[in-house]
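Fold this sequence, please.
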Amino acid sequence: MHLDDENLKIPEPDSDFEKRIWARVSAEMGARPGVSHKFLWMLVPAALAIAFFVGRSSKDPEIVYLPQQQLLQAATSEHLERSKLVLIETANGAAPLAQARAEELLSTNRLLRRGAQEAGELQTAELLEELERVLLEVAHSSETMKPEEATALRARIREQGLLFRVRLLENKNKQNTELTD
């Protein structure tokens, strides 16, 4: 079968297409009482990380390199801000509250770590790897975590200076993003 340009053209949607789609999406969002807006905001870093990877596979890297780097930094900053909350809750003994958040952050953390490695940001990748270990432990901790396990986890977060290092990287990424705007 021979394909020509006419067979590959995608037809333009009608003028009401966007309105119909938005009506369907907004109705669906309103119909789901269990879906919170906080969960939807958790998708932002994942979407930015996916956009970064799609851009990396582009055939003309000179054109898309700067925006990719900005996307990666913005996604990492957003992720670090959310991870910081999990670390603070865990360090203050509220691990059960942080458990669900940590579980949500794990997949984004993996994507961002891979993106940082591919971009040559080795310090960022290393920090995200350490953060991933803690997020895993918090996510898989049960509400019946023994007090000595919780104490050991909090001590490890303090000893590694993880919260401090997350704040430093978050600030560095925010400054870099502001400078390129």
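The first helix runs from residue 5 to 8. The chain has a mean pLDDT of 75.
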